[in-house]
Amino acid sequence: MSFSALGLSDEIVRAVSEQGYTSPTPIQAQAVPAVLSGGDLLAGAQTGTGKTAGFTLPLLQRLSAAPRHKVNGQIPIRALILAPTRELAAQVEESVRQYGKYLPLTSACIFGGVGINPQIALLKRGVDILVATPGRLLDHMQQGTVNLHHIQILVLDEADRMLDMGFIRDIRKVLAALPPKRQNLLFSATFADEIKKLADSLLSNPALIEVAR
């Protein structure tokens, strides 16, 4: 199976093939159509299965196909990807940029441990896709430097690690600030009880995908 057979645009397929990928991994083959359908998704996938492309590719496709309206002269954030660590957040945003290089979409990555002012300047310019760690995103929310009112797609990446690291309260605060009508994608290596509880409260009739390592 090819990436174009999954319903992805020529621009995205071209960027993917430039990264050296010719056919989708099992998680990509299942997740891409599920995300493109617009419904919620609960996916069990380890790191190393190609899961990042499993959500970034269809997310790029959906955002690039939808009209892009400025709000108060600024590009609103339409997709939010939460990741547990700065390393993972940076990695995911790198994928967004690589796969979206031929699309007119912008992205930014924000995490703690570095100065907040350059991030504020970045957010002021407006971005379509924001990749963030929960703690630093809350910092921006408290300072009023991020606007989450126009989010259409939310991704929780490595949700089990986020819960293990004690981020559940932060995640709930973020969720409370998002518009109720949106697409939710939850990726986790395990489906522990805590994850099931979070999925039940977050997802509506989700597609369920489990991929072995």
Percent range for helical residues? 40-55%
User: Which ranges are low-confidence, i.e. pLDDT below 50, for 5 or more consecutive residues?
Assistant: none
Number of strands: 7
**What's the gyration radius in Å?**
16 Å
CATH class (first level) name? Alpha Beta
Give me the secondary-structure category: alpha/beta
Q: What is the CATH-assigned architecture?
A: 3-Layer(aba) Sandwich
Portion in beta strands: 5-15%
Please, how many domains? 1
**CATH third-level topology:** Rossmann fold
Number of helices: 9
Largest sheet, spatial ordering of strands: 3-4-2-5-6-1-7
Distance between the termini: 20 Å
Q: On the 0-100 scale, what is the average pLDDT?
A: 93
What name goes with the CATH superfamily? Answer: P-loop containing nucleotide triphosphate hydrolases
Major sheet characteristics: 7 strands, parallel
Relevant terms:
globular, alpha/beta, 7 strands, Rossmann fold
Please outline what is shown here.
The protein is of the alpha/beta class and 213 residues long. 44% of the residues lie in helices and 14% in strands. The protein has nine helices and seven strands; from the N terminus they run H-H-E-H-E-H-E-H-E-H-E-H-H-E-H-E.
